[in-house]
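Example record

One chain of 343 residues, shown exactly as stored in the release files.
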Amino acid sequence: MKRIEIIEFLKGYSIFTIVLFHYLQTFHWQNIAGKLIFFGGTGVHLFIFLSGFGLYYSHLHKQLNFSAFIKKRMSKVYYPYIIIVIISALISLFIPIYKNSWYALGGHIFLYKMFDESIIGSYGYPLWFISMIIQFYLAFYLILKLRKITGEKYFFIVSFIISLLWTIIIIVTNKDIYRVWNSFFLKYLWEFALGMILAETYYNNEYKLNLTIKRYYFLLIGIANCILYAFLALKAGVTGKMLNDVPALIGYSSIAVWIYLLRIKPLNSGLKYIGKISYAFYLLHTLVLLLVAHYCGEIYRPLLLTISLLLSILIANYYQKFIAYISVTYMKIKQKETYNNQK
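Predicted structure tokens for this chain:
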């Protein structure tokens, strides 16, 4: 399938701001800057939306059975993720960047980490996001069934209600501080479903995205929703924090589209490049930062983060190629096995 320029840009933009958010958190700012950097973390909402778009767009082009779908996702997502976890565990035998544990390592390999708060942050706290994405993969065919039952008209409404009910359960049971609850895939189902709807619209519209809204409207919509998102997060208590996903997605994404429409060639090209290596970049960025910090010691922190960022991008470029190689090789092996079984 042909890559979609704006989708690649948005993937790169979201992952880049998420990585910056994680890096800037190491400053431990207590002032307004410490609150502003959370805007970068809002990129998870856009990335979930893009995941829904990508998976359904691929499904519309080539429908696989559940077994073939999971095997494909495992080769592209699970195996590269587990390789990084195992490398992190091996490094930690010699350099104390993580606390080693057979139970935690097994949690990643056998996927029970996503249900155990005590190890959800093991071998890199940002890896919680991979657990949530894998949950979407495991539930994808159930989501497709929901799409078929509800029809195009009510799919988003039902998905939104499910996400809202899950959020209410979290608030009522005081589970909002637990990652295994507040990042369970049902909370973000509506964003994933919205991505699927856009993919279907794009597919049925002869592969065209008509951005008819004037450029500066995206900026105004983005600023307005970011203000609402910040108010809910900072002034509306637990309920506000748990219910601010809608303005977070709209505000963050609108500003991203506005930046894209500025057509600043070096910026757009750079973020599209990040989009192509986004998964490898995300998997590696925390590990690289910890290793650079270990070997460089107490150097000027902005320099430390800059070195870590550039090294992460450089290594991610090669690791993404390795991921592609794993995926292609794995699928060839499976196709050969299928062919031999049919003989």
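Notes: The CA atoms of residues 195 and 328 lie 26 Å apart.
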